[in-house]
Amino acid sequence: MELATVWNKRLTDATVRELTHADDDLIYQFQAQHPDYFGHFQDHPVTRQEAIQDVDDVPVNATHDQKTYLGVFEQDQLVLIVDLIVDYPLPSLVWLGLWLPDKSLSAQRRGELYQSLVQTLRAADAVQLQLSVFMGDRQAPAFWAEQGLTKVQTTTVVRGERAANVTIYQHKFDQAAN
């Protein structure tokens, strides 16, 4: 199932498409507008190479065919990057590796987009989504709690020579509400 195609059917005022290396400049420009996010785990602004590496990066024990790197567009403007690993770390689970909204999106609009993504994932037989939030992030925990996610655990992730404390959140989908 092509997630972008299915997600598009659930949206009336936005379009979703797979982001590829043909979008490298767009991906870098968008990510460069989010220094606070990248400051949680690196001591420098995101570089072009780091930004475009996201298109291909997969976690240990995942394969490239499990990865979907999506852009959500409103009026032809990129407003959200979503990096998903399907069936990871277990079958029917989805890992949300990146949810990076444009700063102009309201919390309500981000919530609408997230809930439409949940409907899309449920249609693909996913039963749960997990993600991590950096401990220093003061806004994300409230947003994810409003969307129905709950804290699972706190852990430390290592990227290169830097370590960061994160909280893992999960959203168990209500299968009856399909």
Structural features:
alpha+beta, globular, single chain, 178 residues, 6 helices, seven-stranded mixed sheet
Characterise this structure.
With 178 residues, the chain is α+β, with helices and mostly antiparallel strands. Helix content is 28%, strand content 33%. The chain is built from six helices and seven strands, in the order αβαααβββαβαββ. It has a seven-stranded mixed beta sheet, with helices on both faces. The longest helix has 17 residues, at 107-123. The radius of gyration is 15 Å and the shape is globular. The mean pLDDT is 91.
Rg over CA atoms, rounded to whole Å, is: 15 Å
Query: For the residues shown, what is the average pLDDT?
Result: 91
Molecular shape: globular
Structural classification: alpha+beta
Which blocks of ≥5 consecutive residues have pLDDT under 50? none
Order of strands in the sheet with most strands: 1-2-3-4-5-7-6
Q: How are helices and strands ordered from N to C?
A: HEHHHEEEHEHEE
Chart the SSEs and their pairings.
Blueprint: H1 3-9, E1 15-18, H2 24-32, H3 35-38, H4 48-53, E2 67-74, E3 77-86, E4 93-101, H5 107-123, E5 128-134, H6 140-146, E6 150-159, E7 162-172
Provide a quick synopsis of the model.
This protein is of the alpha+beta class and 178 residues long. The protein is built from six helices and seven strands, in the order αβαααβββαβαββ. A seven-stranded mixed sheet has the order 1-2-3-4-5-7-6, with helices on both faces.
